[in-house]
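Re: the request from the purification team.
They wanted to know what the chain is likely to look like in 3D before they choose a buffer screen. I agreed to run a prediction and write the result into the notebook, where they can find it.
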Amino acid sequence: MTTLLKYLRLLIWGLSLGWGISTATPVTNPSPNTSSATFAGWLDTTGTATVATVQQRAIWEPFTDWKGWAYGPEPVWLKVPVPAASGPDAQPDILVVRPTFLDRVTLYDPAKGTERRSGDFFPPYGDALGSILFTFEVPAMATARHVFVKLQSTSARVVHLSLMPRQAAQAYTRWVEWGTDCVWFLSVIFLLWSMLQWVRTRDRVMGFFAVKQLLISVWGFFLLGFARITVGQWFAEGMLSMVSSVLVSGALASVLWFFAALLLEYKVRPWMLTCLRAAAWASLCLCLLNFVGLTQESLQLVNLMLPFALLWIAITLLFARTEEVKPPIPRVVLFSYACLYAVLNALPAMTHLGLIGASPILFIGNMSVLVVDGLVMLAILNVRQQRLKEQHRAVTTKLMLQQEQAQLDQQYLDEHRKLLAMLAHEMKTPLATLRIWMEAGPKGKPVMERAIQDMDRVIERCVHTGQLSDHSLQPSNDWFDATELTHSVLAASRQPDRVHLHLPPESCELFADAQMLAIVLSNLLDNAYKYSVPNTSIDVWLEAGNGSQGLAGWRWRVENAVNVAGAPDGNKVFDKYYRGAHTQRQSGSGLGLFLVKTLLELMRGQVAYTPLPERVRLEVWLPREAVGA
């Protein structure tokens, strides 16, 4: 939206500038013909007529507005009635000839014996008003008379005449200039917008649109007469007309290439798209005819090709397989515009070819190429850019989710492999022990029971770990005595006689999950049994203490001597499946301290590991009352 506002401000500034430049006199919208004069025309099929023979001719074709004779090498003669002067001080009238792409326009005034030239072949030095239109001064005389205009052009021989007083002619030409200036400036605005969008996005379709808009804007600069009055003196006679004709073919080719790029998003039938591209190449090749003197033939072929090519665009869209893809712009929107664009451009082409009569639609059609296409495409491509961004964001989000899911799946597989490897390792020793002592009879019963307990602990830790991963294990709090729970856990441990228990004399009331706490204390004791020096004492303290947030609670400290495996890494001791480098030969799952930390987090407790000289200490703390209870 901010970008569009910038363009609108630039557009308003440009229109204001154009108004100021083109309004040397007050601009109104005057009637082109101040008199109800009827003009007359005659096609000189022989090409040998002179002013003298034309004056004697009796049969003429009358017209009052636009008139056309299609393409052809024959000159066209126009008879213009000039009324008698209203007084001795009457000012000369101005004859205004349109359109601006006529090659040679020659005015003959037999009564004055003068001859003046204008047209796209010549600079505007001989024009009465120096306008983009062709203007001739017609001196006033006491009697009515006729002046004659000879029209020769490689372009379509379409003409509009206006005879009016100088002041009215100035107002009229300024009005036409201001209108065409605004139209051309709009075309340049669309060009700048498309170029900026292409630089920013490097979008292929936007690049083709920028090329198309560039060629059409340059073509409009020549077609509308701006080139003749600005740079005409630098061109040799006839060069302006040839450049304009070359640009017509190039502009059509760029339009077809742009639509070919845009239609790729609609899954159109390949052979139809190939035909469109072939038409673009054919139009581009028509430019070469201008360099071998076949300018008129080139223009005729371009105008013949234009309606069929644009109609082919609409047909191609109509048969697109859009059910396979969802394009940024709905097909019905682009199809409707393609039909409108084809009609607007076909009418001038049919006028040039003489298939329909000349009318103001010629001027309107040429303006539509410069403005309507750019304006509509600006809106369509802007919406397209926004939707492409949304699609890109959606694809990016989907890709990120897929990557995250892939990472989770990989993590799950890694966890699964680690679990299976741990189970395979940890079950081997108890199972081997069972096989050996099964034949020993009653003597092997204690050893076998211990082996079964080891397997139970491994399985139990795996179950608890799975419950934590599924978030299905949640604390169920109740009041209980922490001292009694500690005695109970110690009694169920594998070597209770090694433990020196230090308990407070008072009752240790605690509001927590007794089962989770039992698992925590059991894992702490089991870890101390496994990784301490054999047959050395293990100290366990239970005492009142505050947590990191100052809450009252109870703290358990478990200390044991470090065996030959050494103290574990403090940064990894609570990691899942972590075991010290020198403990791989000892039985263990690597899940005990991971469960301690995770269960304490569920109960809003804390755990800390402290290495001491030749000993290690593990501390756990729980609040006296569960947080939020």
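For the purification team: The chain has a mean pLDDT of 80.
Please add any questions underneath this entry.
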